[in-house]
Specification:
The protein has 177 residues and is mainly alpha-helical. α2 (32-48) packs parallel to α4 (75-86). The longest helix has 17 residues, at 32-48. It has one domain. A hairpin with a 2-residue loop joins β4 (100-101) and β5 (104-105). The chain contains seven helices and seven strands; from the N terminus they run βααβααβββαβαβα. It has a three-stranded parallel beta sheet with strand order 1-6-7. A two-stranded parallel ribbon has the order 2-3.
Length: 177
């Protein structure tokens, strides 16, 4: 996958979706390409680096609760082990300080279109917004992000959808649009 950004944040659903490759017979047909895209993205990041996280370990802790620290059995679990083993080697600029403020962060952009943004995902946006290069956030299956992409773009935060057809279809189904 050569169109991946050099630096990025990775929503937890990317390595979780990559882990579905362990049981290919159980992957719904509509999700097959998405699983492959997530596997490729995770493998790319592990090989090339460029992951951006927060200095307070909130993103790491979310990964840790959803993935195996042992690095197996799945590709997403291998990503978790890689993050654990390498996070202190990331450039300091890629371990971004964010400040919790209630259910949000001081670095979360102020935009009317983001008022209902999921509190558990705000850390990704706050980190992207606070990083000097404003790296994109890799997103796989959370269709709510499709509805926020324009507002995020207006404040300079981009989302790189690994599964755009799938996520747009899910968004339309959920929102009835």
């Amino acid at each position: 996958m050569n169109n991946l950004p050099k630096k990025c944040l990775v929503d937890t659903n990317v390595p979780k979706t990559a882990n579905l490759a362990l049981t290919p017979d159980t992957i719904p047909q509509e999700l097959t390409d998405c699983v492959l895209a997530c596997v490729e993205a995770v493998e790319h990041i592990v090989k090339k680096g460029g992951l951006v996280i927060d200095a307070g370990h909130e993103i790491f802790d979310e990964y840790r609760h959803k993935l195996s620290m042992k690095g197996q059995p799945g590709v997403g679990d291998r990503f978790m082990k890689w993050v654990n083993d390498n996070r202190w080697k990331f450039p300091e600029a890629d371990r971004v300080q964010i400040t919790k403020n209630g259910e949000s962060y001081d670095q979360f952009p102020d935009h009317e279109g983001l008022n209902d943004f999921d509190p558990s995902d705000r850390k990704f946006v706050a980190v992207a917004n606070a990083h000097p290069a404003k790296p994109p956030i890799l997103q796989a299956t959370d269709s709510k992000w499709w509805g926020w992409k324009d507002a995020l773009g207006e404040v300079g935060v981009s989302v790189h959808f690994l599964c755009p057809d799938y996520i747009e279809r899910k968004y339309v189904e959920k929102m009835g649009r």
